[in-house]
Amino acid sequence: MAQNPVNVIAAVLPNMGIGWKGGLPWHSKSLVKEMKHFTRLTSAAAEGKQNAVVMGRKTWESIPEKFRPLRNRINVVLSRTLSHLPLGAHYLATDFSNALAQLSESELCCRIDHIWIIGGSSIYKAHCWSIFGPELLSGSIVAPSMPSHLHYSHHA
C-alpha cells in the first residue's frame, strides 16, 4: 500500500525558533492570518478524504481546549509517556513510525489524503530534518528574533 504524502508546517523565527514558554512567540493579533493559512493548508484534502495532523503531546496541550481536536483533520498525538488517548484526539502513537503505521492501516489509509507534521520541536528534530533536510519555505509573518539560547539547531 502506498504511503500518504508527508508535509511539514511550522512558523519559524529568523533564528529558527518555533516557540516561547509553551506557546507561539508572536502576538495573537499577528497570528490571525497565519492561523487561517495553517488551517487552510492542513485541512485542504481531496473530496471524500481528510488530512491527518501529527503532533507531540506538548503541541496538543498548547492548543486551547475549545479548538481540540483540530476540526476536519485526523488528530494524532505522539507521546512516550501517555498511556491513554488524550480527550478529543483520534489516535495516540509512541513515535512517528508508530503513527505512520497506524495511519497506513488499510481502512484508514484510504480515508487520508496528506499527513501533516505540525510540531513541536522534538518531532521536528527527530523526524523532519532527517527526512527533508534544511530546506525551508519562507512565510509572510514578520517576527522578532529570539534569544540565542533558544536557537533551534537543525544539525542531527
Task: Describe what this molecule looks like in 3D.
With 156 residues, the protein is an alpha/beta fold. The protein has one domain (6-150): 3-Layer(aba) Sandwich (Dihydrofolate Reductase, subunit A). 29% of the residues lie in helices and 17% in strands. It has five helices and five strands. The chain has helices spanning 28-43, 57-62, 96-103, 106-109, 121-132; strands at residues 6-8, 50-56, 73-78, 91-93, 112-119. The longest helix is centred in the N-terminal third of the chain and has 16 residues, at 28-43. The model is unreliable at 136-156 (pLDDT under 50). It catalyses: (6S)-5,6,7,8-tetrahydrofolate + NADP(+) = 7,8-dihydrofolate + NADPH + H(+).
Helical content stands at 25-40%
Per the CATH scheme, the topology name is Dihydrofolate Reductase, subunit A
N to C succession of SSEs: EHEHEEHHEH
Structural class given helices, strands, pairing? Answer: alpha/beta
- Number of distinct helices: 5
CATH architecture: 3-Layer(aba) Sandwich
Arithmetic mean pLDDT: 80
Q: Which strand order spans the largest sheet, edge to edge or round the barrel?
A: 1-5-2-3-4
Proportion of beta-strand residues: 15-25%
